[in-house]
Amino acid sequence: MLSNRLYIFDLDGTLLNTIGDLAEACDHVMRTHSHPTHSYQEYCSFVGNGIRRLVEQALPTDCREAEYLEECKQEFVTYYSEHIDLKTLPYEGITAILEELQNSGAKIAVASNKFHEGTVKLIRKFFPQISFVALYGNMEGMPLKPDPELIEMIIRKAGVDHAHTTMIGDSAVDINTSHNAGIRGIAVSWGFRSRTELEEAHPDHIVDTVEQLRELLMAI
Predict the structure, then answer these.
(1) Where are the domains of the chain?
(2) N or C: which end of the chain has fewer CB within 10 A?
(3) How many CB atoms lie within 10 A of CB 1?
(4) What is this structure's pTM?
(5) What pLDDT score does 1 carry?
């Protein structure tokens, strides 16, 4: 049994492939304002640091003043909230891992830089059978990852010590979060970032398949 273990998952690029809906929402804002749209690979490099940063990077460099950026960000949130799950799907095998962890008594949480309402909506739709001990996206007044504050809040809520807590994510942001919180960090290579970025962040482990992740989580 894994009752004294806490596994904190990133959302985008780790549990769910969300890039299609994120890209479409951002392209909608760009088209609305007659700005250039972007490629799949560009959006993969833009995501991971919150909605504001995503929109900022998508905008032309001479169109990033604070007031205009905020306007575009709000347009993104409105459109994305209404079209959040049209292309999004869990990565194959992820649901089974979460169910196995839950059945083994482990505590499971989500810590995302996606805005909180969107995070909750997606988790409730795609993983309704999982009882998450904590489920957090970015909330007003809370710093984004890699600041460890959200992780510390989850650890306190779960009542598990740092030595038995693991962060699982697809980017250097997630691995740096684990370093900053003093917990184990596992990088998954099927998400939105390159393996080079993951290696340079020095995670405790890198896994390339969902089955490798399952075996590792059951062993640590």
Answers:
(1) 6-17+89-219, 19-82
(2) N
(3) 8
(4) 0.95
(5) 66
